[in-house]
Amino acid sequence: MPAATFDRSDFREAMARMGAAVNIITTKGPDGDTGMTASAVCSVTDDPATVLVCINRASRLHEIFKNSGIMCVNVLTHVHEELSPIFAGKGNLPMAERFAHGDWIRLATGAPVLESAAASLDCKVSQSVDVGTHTVFFCAVQAIHLGQSSSGLVYQGRAYHPIQRKLD
Amino acid sequence: MPAATFDRSDFREAMARMGAAVNIITTKGPDGDTGMTASAVCSVTDDPATVLVCINRASRLHEIFKNSGIMCVNVLTHVHEELSPIFAGKGNLPMAERFAHGDWIRLATGAPVLESAAASLDCKVSQSVDVGTHTVFFCAVQAIHLGQSSSGLVYQGRAYHPIQRKLD
Predict the structure, then answer these.
(1) Residue partners of A42: CB distance under 8 A and separation at least 6
(2) How many residue contacts between A and B have a Cβ separation below 8 Å?
(3) What are the tens digits of pLDDT across the range B11-28?
(4) First and final CA of chain B: distance in angstroms?
């Protein structure tokens, strides 16, 4: 097999073309609630119900998620297109101000749950694997909240795309 | 923390609400080319460029991907909505007949590469982790092909959704 030959910009373009659901992942630590927007989230297995979340170890929030061991994955709907950038760091708001936006409740772990999300998966981290610059957190589901809307929000081609249910 | 309490049907509904890009993953083994549709695919890190793919160990194709150690992730566009079900097993076609559909080339590993895909990531499996019923394959990118179209195809709410670039 020849040596790998491609530009990193090609990889980033390829990943931009791979659409992904937009989620806000949250946790509760000794300094309060923390949340960030994440699209590197994936279903793993339904037995035991598990999802995974990839977080860059260079992020200042990485240690907070790692130390807490709990994580809620909130799957956004088309109504959250303005909430997503707030938790992606737009305006660099303090956490308390970020959480002033959105309708937050609690379920099993105590991590913030977005009540209007399409779905929220309240999880305990069951294992983690470091791969390159990132940690992959495997998250065992403890409780689930299904929101009233089952529509979606996808990020693809460096743009948001609302996904309306065909029967809505 | 209370014991986990939710129905498995709630987990499946939550995962259905989490939209995902549709991909065809391929490999080349001693018995020829193999491919299957997969949406449990996720970007991990760009250093070294790595994606992950989750495959159910109960799938008869799991062993073929595991034994070959190579995997090409082909990110579908809106023009592939009819190709996706073929590789998801619709009609239960033999592999050779599945590959009669689509425009296939080869890059570094020898696995089939869909030339019209939005992006194809031709990979060597660098490590794997078993989680519940599934294996998570971490795939180190060896070569990249970017197709002419950067549009996408998302599966959400148990339906396909074409994602057209806003500037197309």
Answers:
(1) A51, A52, B20, B40, B41, B42, B52, B54
(2) 231
(3) 999 999 999 999 999 999
(4) 49
Dump pLDDT digits (tens) for A132-145: 999 999 999 999 99
**Residue A74's closest chain B neighbor by CA?**
B18
| Distance between start and end Cα atoms, chain A | 49
- A154 is written with which tokens? 């996808």
The answer to whether the Cβ–Cβ distance between A163 and B157 falls below 8 Å is yes
User: With b meaning 16 or more CB within 10 Å and e meaning fewer, what string describes B44-83?
Assistant: bbbeebbbbbbbeeeeebbebbbebbbbbbbbbbbebeeb
Selected residue of B45, B51, B70, B146 to mutate for chain A interface (largest A Cβ count, 10 A): B45
Asked if the bond preceding B112 is cis, omega within 30° of 0, the reply is no
Which residue of A lies nearest to B2 if distances are taken between CA atoms? A108
A19-163 CATH fold: Pnp Oxidase; Chain A (2.30.110)
Beta bridge partners of B145: B120
Amino acid B166: pLDDT: 57
* Per-residue model confidence as pLDDT tens digits over A113-167: 999 999 999 999 999 999 999 999 999 999 999 999 989 999 999 999 999 865 5
The verdict on a CB contact (< 8 Å) between B4 and A140 is yes
**Distance (Å) from the alpha carbon of B75 to chain A's nearest alpha carbon:** 6
Q: Which residues pair with A25 in a beta bridge?
A: A36, A73
Domain residue ranges in chain A: 19-163
Name the residue facing B159 among A141, A142, A166 (closest C-beta). Answer: A166
Residue of A nearest to B76 (CA): A18
CATH number listed for the domain at residues B22-146? 2.30.110.10
- What's the ipTM? 0.95
User: So what's the pLDDT on residue A168?
Assistant: 44
Q: Nearest residue of A to residue B120 by CA position? A: A14
Q: Which amino acid is at B66?
A: K
* A103 and A121 Cβ atoms separated by less than 8 Å: no
